[in-house]
Amino acid sequence: MTLTRPQAMAHFDMAIPHAGVSLKQLKEEGKKVVGYYCMYAPQEIAMAAGTIPVALCATKEEPIADGEKTLPRNFCPLIKSSYGFAVTDKCPFFLHSDLIVGETTCDGKKKMFEHMAKFKPLHVMKLPQGYESAQDRAYWLESVKELVNVLEQTFQVQISEQKLNASIKELNDERKLIMELADFMKYDPVPVSGQDMLKVLWARNFVFDRPEFAQQVRDLISELKERVARGEGALAKGAKRIVVTGVPTGLGAEKVLKIIEENGGALVYIENCAGMKQFVNPVDETKPALEAIAEKYLNTHCSCMSPNPRRMELVEQICRDFKADGVVDIVWQGCHTYNVESKILQDYLKEKSGIPFLHIETDYSQGDAEQIRTRVQAFMERMP
Amino acid sequence: MTKVVAGLDLGSTAIKLALYDGGRFGFWRGPAGWDTRNTAVTMLESAAREWQIDPGCIEHVCGTGYGRIGAVGLTRTVTEITCHAKGAAHLYPEVRTVIDIGGQDSKAIRTEENGHVADFIMNDKCAAGTGRFLQVMAHALELDLADMADMQLDSSEAACPINAMCAVFAESEVIGLLNRGKSRNSIVSGLYQSISTRIASMAARIDPTSPIVLTGGVSMHGLLQAQLAKALNAPVIVPENAVYAGAIGAALFAWKDYKIGGF
């Protein structure tokens, strides 16, 4: 059977090209925009403040040279890229942001924000070092409450419990829908490619009309149901099934993902911040709003948390649920936390299941594409 | 008529060819040059003439190495990681870890029965720990790489530590050492020590187990073998024809294709 692409993907192909114009229109209508970089930024609070939360780009190689004018060269490309975009005003989404919300995640980011604060209104949320103790949770709850105050003052609004509950409901529905979509990757053949899945998840950040986005996802889901019934795949039946984990690999920084699929691997799950990470856990609707929001966001299993057992457990669970043949852990050069954690994950998986594991350390350039290709091919050759 | 298959290892620096008829192997090697594609074709033709067969009769040609992408006349490609493991197991069946140091990268491969790959690691975006590193250093020392490979060092003279990991900076360091009057011998020892330490730390990530076999172009450097054994704290075996391990592996995959009757 020939390999095909779902037709509903056409929506998502156009989402990003359209985003700049639609954001500009919203600004002209008087809407306020809150830009954020990280999964830790509670979007519910920005929405309850009547603002539009916008995820900011940091996935292109082009602004890195400008980033390096201020930041060290041997630094994470994501931070250099985001700073380069910001300082040159080349990113329309940064330009249109009335306030940036950052977090003290890794050392690189929190120090970069000190530079950024000099030319842009910026609030940095303070994260604890871990998510397991009551003390850590209490500390973060205070940071979340502080954000509420900052947004109320900046935009002269009242963030009521009612508005928070409404935005929790809206985002929880979206999370449920994305999880439903992700479940289609359990089929063999996969009805949609991993790169297209990434495109859908990435488009989420660039469609400001959330009900419209939800409808497009529902259209895609109906098409995928038909494709599964017909046995129609985006990749061959029996393709090696790969779970990708590690650093964010958004559009523009999807080099390794592309190489995996070009070599016949089916990317069944993208376990990172460009992929599924933000959708996995909903906000508990039975608890007081801020407490529930704080809990959900602190549970994000990022390597900046120490220790980070949730990531190990989740990756292992995903491998079983999606019948994975291998795990590829992608790390940006200069990302110390994911780089060190890679061996912890490798050892954990070795003990639990022995699933083949490949660690790839790279950056946004194409210079090592052939080396990575060789590694990915050899990785698939070793699978039975 | 005897069936002959070929394995072509198209490396960054050298091309290695193995012909195989199910019983015996023949080996050829030459510089990759700027025109890898044609060099490979010419090598295959002259090898076939030596074996007194028509090159057209070699129906199964498996390519490996960086040049496999874009090479002409290949019926199959397999990565050099898989081929070196397979080839090393042919040369030394008990092998459990293969260390291959090539022109532009190095890798450590843990293997199982029949040279099946269990795990592997490759150097990242850096020349340290590769043949290129030695080539740059040989140049700084005004030595021919082949002469450096064959150097017999006086073991009473201590190796001069080379600390720079980057090939470019290591060259500056070597020049500095020469200026300070250090002998060529002690610097060469230091270079082999540096490369061995680098490879041993990389290999530690895959839990190397003995027997350890060294393959690739750099396996011809006798001094490296001893330094690597020290760094790995285990014997390092260099079987005869270790430089052809990748080509042998490729030829064995080509032979498998011939046996199952497909390409």
Strand order of the largest sheet of chain B: 3-2-1-4-5
**CATH-level-2 architecture of chain A:** 3-Layer(aba) Sandwich
Helix content of chain A: 40-55%
**What is the approximate shape of chain B?**
globular
Sheet with most strands of chain A? 4 strands, parallel
Name of the level-1 CATH class of the largest domain in chain B: Alpha Beta
- Number of DSSP helices of chain B? 8
Beta-strand portion of chain A reads 5-15%
> For the largest interface in this structure, which chains are involved and how many residues does each contribute?
A-B, 17 and 18 residues
Shape call of chain A: globular
Taken together, the total number of domains of chain B comes to 2
Rg for CA atoms of chain A: 20 Å
In angstroms, what separates the terminal alpha carbons of chain A? 23 Å
Q: What is CATH's topology name of the largest domain in chain B?
A: Nucleotidyltransferase, domain 5
Largest sheet of chain B: 5 strands, mixed
Protein model, in words:
The complex is a heterodimer of chains A (384) and B (263). By secondary structure, chain A is of the alpha/beta class. Chain A has a single domain, classed as Rossmann fold (3-Layer(aba) Sandwich). Helix content of chain A is 50%, strand content 11%. Chain A contains 15 helices and 8 strands. Chain A has helices at 9-28, 43-48, 64-67, 77-88, 92-95, 107-116, 134-155, 161-182, 194-204, 210-230, 255-262, 289-298, 309-321, 336-352, 369-381; strands at 33-36, 52-55, 99-103, 122-125, 241-246, 266-271, 326-332, 357-362. In chain A, the strands form 2 sheets. Chain A has a 4-stranded parallel sheet with strand order 2-1-3-4, with helices on both faces. The mean pLDDT of chain A is 96. Chain B is 40% helix and 19% strand. Chain B is an alpha/beta fold. In chain B, the strands form 2 sheets. In chain B, strands 3-2-1-4-5 form a 5-stranded mixed sheet. Chain B has a 5-stranded mixed sheet with strand order 8-7-6-9-10, with helices on both faces. Chain B has 2 domains: 5-83 and 244-260, Nucleotidyltransferase, domain 5; 94-238, 2-Layer Sandwich (Nucleotidyltransferase, domain 5). At the A-B interface, strand 8 and helix 15 of A face helix 2 and strand 8 of B.
